[in-house]
Amino acid sequence: MNAISVKNLNKVFTYYEKKEGFQHSLKNLLVRKQKTKEAVKNISFDIDSGDIIGFLGPNGAGKTTTLKMLSGILYPTSGEVHVLGYCPWKRQKEFKMKYSMVLGQKSQLWPDLPASETFRLNQYIYEVDERKCKMLLDELTEYLDVKHLLNVQVRRLSLGERMKLELIASLIHSPQLIFLDEPSIGLDLVSQKKIRSFIRYWNEQYKTTVMITSHYMKDIEDLCERVIVINGGEKLYDGSLSDVNYMFKDIKIVNLELSSEIDDMKLGKFGVITKKDGLNCTMEVNRENLHEFIGYVTQKLNIKDISISDIPVEKGIELLYR
Ligand SMILES: Nc1ncnc2c1ncn2[C@@H]1O[C@H](COP(=O)(O)OP(=O)(O)OP(=O)(O)O)[C@@H](O)[C@H]1O
């Protein structure tokens, strides 16, 4: 069954240009120049219940705008969307009870209160039974190891600690669907890993549908089999993460450790030098040039070491963005 169904979704923002300075501010009172920005262009996709989908794209691609439309925070300019069977921007109460949204860059916890107070507030808003809420909080705080933080003022917490509590706050009403917009932004590697394992655990335990955006490819590799990639508001790719690399199977990554300096021009004719650090060099070489390149390197150069590999997923996604 589809948890999300999106057809020909568009969002055009209109805004007024505002140049810097007092003079321009005065001018703006009389004449304002209207501008438009097509943030989302004709996007369509379906997401099955219980899946974890990676929603990827470079900065400004239109990810947050799309998630905001799917959660009913923004009206689209045109298009059709069904989320859990509801039209999100009608903001029906039953719909609001069934989904949750976590914005890594915005907190839903009250900064001057301990997180336990926000949890209680959410419990009342979502009308969650006292016993059920307690059981859920026990499970969540135990898994994320934050029991000792429940009564600490939120603004005194570290980013990683706060993020764990944000996730808990968003799950108090056991939503069927969670939108996670960069849930691991700014976190250290250990906290990122914990958040990932928690998302995986929660999805397996409760079959919750998850749509996640992240600029950390490890999040996506660990959690998502399927990714939807957008850029400039348009959908570029919708399919399995492993197939992204298949699309770039003709590009090989060659790492060279040289014994002496070599002119970039000489190497450059076989492929693209992506990194050079002293005598270490990384190149992208097309498969059809590989044979000739290896011949050149082994016969004409003094090399200490060489390794050849397929492009990593992260690189595949980067090439897709390009
Ligand atoms: N309220 C707005 N008015 C005008 N333009 C906007 C508005 N909100 C977003 N945009 C523009 O729409 C585009 C898409 O923004 P969006 O926040 O959806 O990108 P994103 O993919 O989430 O990026 P990031 O990874 O940096 O968070 C950007 O060019 C942004 O400047």
From TrEMBL:
Domain (ABC transporter): residue spans on this chain: 24-257
Lineage top rank: taxon: Bacteria
GO molecular function annotations of the record: ATP binding; ATP hydrolysis activity
Alphabetically ordered keywords of this record: ATP-binding, Nucleotide-binding, Transport
Pfam family, one: ABC_tran
Keyword Acetylation: no
SUPFAM superfamilies: P-loop containing nucleoside triphosphate hydrolases
PANTHER family: ABC TRANSPORTER ATP-BINDING PROTEIN (PTHR42711), ABC TRANSPORTER RELATED (PTHR42711:SF4)
Name under which the protein is recorded: ATP-binding cassette domain-containing protein
